[in-house]
Structure formats: C-alpha cells, structure tokens
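Narrative summary of target 7.
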Amino acid sequence: MSDDSSTAAMVAKAAVKANLPAPAARPAAAPEAVAVAEAASVGVVEPLVSLADFMNVLHQQDRRYELVAAFAKAQQRAARWFATAAEYQACFAAFVSQAVR
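Modeled conformation, tokenized:
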C-alpha cells in the first residue's frame, strides 16, 4: 500500500470515528493542465506562459501602451493567468479588432 492511500485510509477512519463527513476528493485538474495533457497525447506540447511574461513580450512588440494595459486588465478580469502564447495572441487580436464603446 502506498503512503498516499494509507494516509487517505487513516483520514477516512478518523472521520468515521469522529462522526465527521469524509474529506472531499481532490479538485479536478485546472483547464490549463487538461489542455497540456491533451496536446501531449497528440505529441505536440506548447508551454504555458504567464500573463505577466506575455505582457512583457507584447510591450516590446507593440508600443501602444494604453491598448496593451487595457488588454492586460481584460485578461485579469477573465482570470486568464496562464495560456499558450498562441492563445494570448488570438485574444489580443480579437481585443484589438473589437469596437470601442
């Protein structure tokens, strides 16, 4: 028996003895991890990039500071902290082409 399963068994026994509900299962993998796993099964893996790293690169490529800052804020609101560079590029292209309100 592995250490993880024996620890889980001890926690479950302790919960039963204490008349407590069993601990919840581990949360599902993050969408980014699932995307990387799916890409790995095909044989193509593109590394995930943090939003801050992508914004540094984008700032060097595009000197429209206000636009880059607005894009960063939109990505933060969408909670898109990690993605591939291609996904960020696609999001930026869509952000640039949308109508101004």
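Helices lie at 3-17, 31-42, 51-61, 65-77, 85-97.
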